[in-house]
Amino acid sequence: MAGTGVSPRMRLIEQELETQWLGRPTTILAEVDSTNRWLKRQFMTGWAAHGAAVWSDAQTEGRGRLGRAWYSPAGANIYTSILLCPPRQRLSGVLSLVAGIAVVHAVRRHTGLDARIKWPNDAVIAGRKFCGILVEAGVEPEPWVIIGVGVNVGGPINPAFAHAVSLAEALGGHLVREDLWLDLMQSLEEAYDQWLNHGDQWVIQAWTSVNATLGQRVRVNRPGHDPWEGIAERIDSDGGLWLRQGTRLKKVIAGEVSIRLADGRYAPDSF
User: Fold this and answer.
1) 36, 67, 189, 202: which one has the fewest Cβ atoms less than 10 Å from its Cβ?
2) Residue extent(s) of CATH 2.30.30.100 domains in the chain
3) Are strands 217-221 and 228-235 parallel, antiparallel or unpaired?
4) pLDDT digits (tens, 9 = 90+) for 165-205
5) Sign of the torsion angle spanned by Cα atoms 93, 58, 9, 25
6) What is the location of CATH 3.30.930.10 in the chain?
7) What is the pLDDT of residue 61?
8) Do the Cβ atoms of 182 and 16 come closer than 8 Å?
9) Which residues contact 183 (CB under 8 A, 6 or more apart)?
10) Residue 89's CB: how many other CB atoms inside 10 A?
């Protein structure tokens, strides 16, 4: 497709993978409505299995949480989705935490930046968002999870989102998105295998060590309800967040709410 940023290297990127199973195969697209939707269609029609991945240069209908659009211009960023088919008894919201851990570990390893996860699944640097993660799951025809990851590597930032940043801007230099994508795939395979081998407690500990939310006073916004505040105390194995209001603990679920710091900031600037 003329005018896109799909390089010869990107088209052959699967050959550079050092993973054992993740990203095998990987499909490269010039443009798609949504990488999550595309991969789900492939799975439902029997053309994709555990470990399959897709990476598109652009999305026309990229999505984030709560039905929000994800700005997906061509040429410089990462829009990728991965299919996982975990054991039926292990399928849970913890895989959203696994995805966040993988993104942050990959970016830290690749750039040295202090990347962190803002609950539930936004990756931030110095209080600004560089990555969104959208996780979808089901049980038919077998348990499945699709992890969609959008990373602002070096392309233009959504002008409507004041809290966004690209990794290149945060780093103050150029990044090669193919190199970062390879690191991301390696990191996700490592995190998933660690979860299978060591269980939910490993995920909770790993997520807690790189989070930008716990210990902060946050404001919870839920459509149709008044905002309320609490201290983010701990994460649960299903991905829920426990908040403290005085002596009372209250759990919030990612699919229901969005949160900001009580002072209005998107996330803490430093730690």
Assistant:
1) 67
2) 217-261
3) antiparallel
4) 999 999 999 999 999 999 999 999 999 999 999 999 999 99
5) positive
6) 8-209
7) 74
8) yes
9) 106, 109, 110
10) 7
Higher pLDDT, 158 or 191: 191
Domain 8-209, architecture per CATH: 2-Layer Sandwich (3.30)
Nearest CA among 106, 97, 104, 186 for reference residue 145: 97
Instruction: Give the E-state strand segments of 112-152 in sequence order.
Output: 116-118, 122-125, 128-138, 144-151
Q: E strands, the chain, where?
A: 26-29, 53-56, 78-84, 116-118, 122-125, 128-138, 144-151, 217-221, 228-235, 241-245, 248-252, 258-261
SS3 70: coil
3-class state of residue 125 by DSSP: strand
State how far the Cα of 197 lies from the Cα of 230, in Å rounded to an integer.
Answer: 34
Average pLDDT of the segment spanning 25-36: 96
Amino acid at 102: A
**Tally: H helices and E strands in the chain:** 6, 12
**What separation in angstroms does the CA of 146 have from each of 34, 54, 257?**
12, 11, 21
Q: Which residues pair with 211 in a beta bridge?
A: 117
Q: What would the two tokens of residue 158 be?
A: 């959504």
